[in-house]
Amino acid sequence: MKAERLSAGARSHLRERILARIREGSVPTYREFSFVRFIWASPARRAYVGVLSVLVISFGIASFAAEGALPGDALYSMKTGVNEPIRKVLALSSKAKAGVEVELADRRLFEALELESSDRLDDSMREKLFDEAAKHAASLRVVVAESSDDLDEQDIAKLTSAIRSSRDTQNKFSKLSTGLAESESEVSPSSGETMMLSAPAPSAFSSSAVDAEESGKAQNKTQSKSEKENTSSRHLSRLEEEYDKTLQVLDERRLKIASKKKPQELRRGLEDNQNSEGLRKEDD
Predict the structure, then answer these.
(1) What string of pLDDT tens digits covers the 284 residues of the chain?
(2) CA 94 to mean position of chain CA atoms
(3) At what angle do helices 191-198 and 204-283 cross, to 10 degrees?
(4) Which residues fall within 8 angstroms of residue 281, CB to CB, at 6 or more apart?
(5) Model-level pTM?
(6) Which residue of 55, 130, 218, 282 is most buried, as measured by CB atoms within 10 A?
């Protein structure tokens, strides 16, 4: 059969059609940017997206700045009402949930420590912070008890270290609170010094009246100090109790993991001995 060959004109026409088809297919359509073109086509939509972007960026900056806020600061409500609940929601695993709870308990103690060091901690705020710390410790105990089987030795070690760190913060607060109370008692003037400052030559009647007044003030201060210490010790003992229960659960889990490892190690040792004996027999 004789092969047919295209003429020069036919070949040129076919080449032009192929090149035209290639050019049409190589023109980008930008379909992936259709949403951007939809927004950019309307000034109202552009303004809406701009305002929304500014709000999102502002919220992110405020959220970041709120992490260092203390009770009484403007951003503290955002820290406890927005940031911390979001962290709880994002904590999906048992390890993450337990880590968040122990960190929040330590946060409340650290905030009480900072306020106490700057003499800004009143009785109501002290009770509130200690109560919230105890609640987080209780939540930690529940999370660990319900998911202790999901925690390995490394997770248990991390949680134990975090609890001990929180206890260190608790001890620092106790020492600071005791030190401030002792310094106040040392700085407060005695009845004799007050009498000398109030009058250069007081009579016996006025001296006894001043002594009685100063004695009453000292008793009130001592009573207020003891009530404050009792309130602090009550809430801190509750926190200590929750931590003790959590550590007990972690210790039980650690022993359980160790008991499972021992049979496996014994089995592995027996297999190694059998293999070594088999190799020795082959050598003989």
Answers:
(1) 566 777 888 888 888 888 887 776 655 555 656 777 777 778 888 888 889 999 999 999 999 999 999 998 999 999 999 999 999 999 988 889 999 999 999 999 999 889 988 888 888 888 899 889 989 989 998 988 887 567 888 888 898 999 998 888 888 887 776 666 556 555 554 444 443 444 444 555 556 655 556 665 555 555 555 555 565 677 678 888 888 888 888 888 888 888 877 666 656 656 666 666 566 556 55
(2) 15
(3) 140
(4) none
(5) 0.64
(6) 130
